[in-house]
Amino acid sequence: MISEAEARAKILESVRPLPPRKMSILNALDHFAAEDCFARLPLPVFDNSAMDGYAVLASDCKPSKRLRVTGEQPAGVDRRLCVSNGEAIRIFTGAPMPEGANAVVMQENVTRDGNEIVINVDVDIEEFVRKRGCDLGEGQKILGKGDPIVATKLALLASQGFAQVSVGGEVRAAIISTGDELAMPGEKLQPGQIYDSNTVLLQSLLKRCGAVVASAENCRDDADSLRKAIQSTAKKEILIVGGGVSVGEHDLVQATLRDLGAKIDIWRVAIKPGKPFLFGQLGRCFVFGLPGNPVSAFVTLLQFVRPAILKMMGASDLDLPRMPAKLTVDLINQSERAHYVRGEFENGNFAPVGRQESHALFGLSQSNALLRVETGESLKAGETVQIQVWE
Ligand code: AMP
Ligand code: MG
For residue 276, which ligand has an atom nearest its CA? Predict the structure, then answer.
């Protein structure tokens, strides 16, 4: 049995970022930037009006002052108009500032009188003018290599005229759920059978990690079937095999992988739940054997598979989001494995929830955070701890 840290390090040493590709910004959400991106335009791109109103010289404006309206500047064209003393230009939000003007008076603050306006307020220099480059300067970094591409970053790329962005490679995942006891949701349950809940769990988590689930199938605990299933699916970047990695006579995954020529790098990790976790390579495919118990599958996917997928996709931050929380109970870990306690994080508090056993799916479904309690660690109620959140 190796430590969790060793297992994670070994996995992350083995997987490499996949070759990047160019992608339309319309499809790039939730990918990771494969290179730094820099502003090619300042923002705003040119001095423009923040209001519908009149472009003026601020020094020309005081209450009761009359100005002659000499033109109109809408958004979308630059009429190259000019404002001198005693003059104003009708202007609209987003329209380029006319030459000579250094402020905009809101239309609500003037009285229009034919071809003239009467100013009703004092006006400051640069009032309601959005200055070129005040938000973003040319050449400034707008996206860092490995950053997640979120909606606001995509909008920023669009504002710079980028139609495409270079993102990390695609991770395709295949899932095999093993077990003679498995029935598919929707089928009639026979005595001794249970519904397969892991396939949909793994599929959903893999999608959340950013992987594309290329296939998901069930397989009986039978060496021939398993062999065929693994052979036909180990062609993607990763293969997740659920169940069958433990030590029972029906746990055939490791032996079958070895028969097929796989290199097994990790089997059994000091993590609770999740001890039978397996990691190896079959050809170019990384194989993750997750224990069949739902909570074990959940924890090992988040702690071992997720960072591997993120690294392959070119992400720089491979950890689950962490945050401080106040523990509501005493906790002690007397086992020889690091314990991931499932709990509810609410209003800054973390409270363990449900049965803390690896089969307890209902408890897992009520939780939204994990607390890692180290071997031998003793935590007291009221203490601030760092928790991991996944939703
Ligand atoms: P295994 O890792 O194959 O020894 O399975 C451990 C436990 O997880 C057993 O109680 C299995 O019935 C259960 N299990 C295995 N696969 C699944 C699955 N796909 N859905 C729900 N439970 C499962
Ligand atoms: Mg099994």
Answer: 1
Identify which of 193, 198, 268 to mutate to test ligand 1's pocket (most ligand atoms within 8 A of the CB): 198
Residues lining ligand 1, Cβ inside 6 A: 177, 179, 181-182, 194, 196-199, 242-244, 246, 251, 291-294
DSSP structure class, residue 158 = H
Length of the chain: 391
Residues 196-211, mean pLDDT to the nearest whole number = 98
Within 95-224, strands assigned E span 103-106, 110-113, 116-119, 129-130, 141-143, 164-167, 172-178, 182-183, 194-195, 212-219
Which residue from 314, 302, 298 is spatially nearest to 357, judged by alpha carbons?
A: 298
For residue 323, the CA-to-ligand 1 centroid distance in Å is 31
Which atom of ligand 1 is least distant from the CA of 291? Answer: 2
Of the candidates 245, 297, 304, the one whose C-alpha atom is nearest the C-alpha of residue 273 is 297
14 membership: H or E segment, kind and range: helix 4-14
Mutate to test the pocket of ligand 1, among 178, 293, 359 (most ligand atoms within 8 A of CB): 293
**How far is ligand 2, taken at its centre, from the CA of residue 175, in Å?**
15
Q: Measured in angstroms, how far is the CA atom of residue 299 from the centroid of ligand 1?
A: 14
Angle at alpha carbon of residue 104, lines to 102 and 110, rounded to 5°:
135
Q: Which two tokens stand for residue 89?
A: 């230009």
> How do residues 351-389 score in pLDDT, each as one tens digit?
999 999 999 999 999 999 999 999 999 999 999 999 999
The model carries a pTM of: 0.95
Give the integer Cα–Cα distance in Å for 165 and 119.
Answer: 48
Instruction: Please tell me the predicted confidence (pLDDT) of residue 238.
Output: 98
Residue 186: pLDDT above 80? yes
Q: In three state form, how does the secondary structure of 220-266 look?
A: CCCHHHHHHHHHHHCCCCEEEEECCCCCCCCCCHHHHHHHCCCEEEE
- 14 Cα: distance to centroid of ligand 2 (angstroms): 27
Nearest to 300 by CA among 338, 339, 274: 274
